[in-house]
Amino acid sequence: MAMLAGVAALLTLAGCPGQESLLKNPADPSVKGPYPVGAVLGSVDLGKKREVTVEVWYPAKVGSEAGKTVVTYDIREHTPPPQAKKLADAKNETAQQCDCYRDLPIADGEFPVVVMVHGTAAFRSASMHQQTHWASRGFVVVAADHPGIQLYDLLNIVNLKVPPKTDQAGDARGILIALENGTANGFDVLKGHMDFTKVGLAGHSAGGMALKDLGDVADVLIPMSGYAPNPGSRLKSTLVLTAQNDTIVGYDREYSDYVSCKASPKRFAAVDHLGHLFCTDLCWIGADAGGVVKIAENHGIWVAKGFEGLGMNGCAYQNPTKGTDFLQPKCGWQFTNYATAAAFEEVLRCDKDMATALHNIKTAIPAVEGCPDSLVFKYEESL
């Protein structure tokens, strides 16, 4: 433990004022940070009978994960009882193992806050590899199961249950307010460790579109497979991420929307040979069994067929049967982790070197085994 404390001392970095006690991140934004990641589950009552399940991943004390068991999520949690019953024997196919641990002590310091908003038919851990990456690099990362658009509610339609109203932007606002005011349920471990003067928001697909007018509550907005946001009173940086083969929102439409975006400064980056789900775990969960949609169909959940276009977009497990050449999920994670961490840290950790990391992304992003040396299809910036 003495050695760990010595390493921690060597890694301290001034960063933004008030961040003197935070540990320094590796210069490469795609590399995991110095913190083990804790996870805590709670809820936020948004009023009007809208209570939202919320999970937070956070930087934990170095070494506190020793001897602990990692968290394993299971997509079956996000299915209504009739569908969950059909999936009862699918445990090994639906597991999502996380490089995180329940209820670790939080590290010293006040950390910037990042909220991730999931897309249609998704759930709070859909982008787990990004969320834990940010937490390891010194961010308190928040994600919710958004009523009305989450997987549970959309599957429940076939059980003749009308979904609640969808309001992802309102959910994000309400969750931030509740965490800052201390009215969120189950997050005592985080008290005194969240810096609400430094806030970032990211979202995928519908979640990315929900960021459109949230520039008044966030310093950084990162829509992924979504549209560029409007200018906001607080907004200091915008990064639009997409994939060349996104046929759900459409690459050309996303790029055109970025070009017309009036927010400044702004950046645009696209990954090659991947689709709509490039920044999620949805091409990874159950890949050996044909992916989450195929798993559902194989267990008699026929409504899943209607989600094939969305739930399999750009997934490499289709390559042998459909002749596609999509990259493995880890290639999308490498691209997304590099770009998003750099954008967040430039502003929220006051790291000017991250602007250079983004400017040089096409050549600077490290290669990953099993992925091509050049991952970035297009990069533009207007600073």
Please write out the topology.
Elements: H1 2-10, E1 37-45, E2 51-59, E3 70-74, H2 81-86, H3 91-94, E4 95-102, E5 111-117, H4 128-136, E6 140-144, H5 151-155, H6 168-181, E7 194-204, H7 206-209, E8 220-224, E9 237-243, H8 251-260, E10 266-271, H9 291-298, H10 308-311, H11 319-322, H12 329-348, H13 353-359, H14 361-364, E11 376-382
Describe the structure.
The chain is globular. The model is unreliable at 1-13 (pLDDT under 50). It has 14 helices and 11 strands. Strand 7 (194-204), helix 7 (206-209) and strand 8 form a beta-alpha-beta unit. It has a single domain (28-382), classed as Rossmann fold. It is of the alpha/beta class and 383 residues long. The chain has helices at 2-10, 81-86, 91-94, 128-136, 151-155, 168-181, 206-209, 251-260, 291-298, 308-311, 319-322, 329-348, 353-359, 361-364, and strands at residues 37-45, 51-59, 70-74, 95-102, 111-117, 140-144, 194-204, 220-224, 237-243, 266-271, 376-382. 28% of the residues lie in helices and 21% in strands. Helix 12 packs antiparallel against helix 13. It has an 11-stranded mixed β-sheet, sandwiched between helices. The termini are far apart.
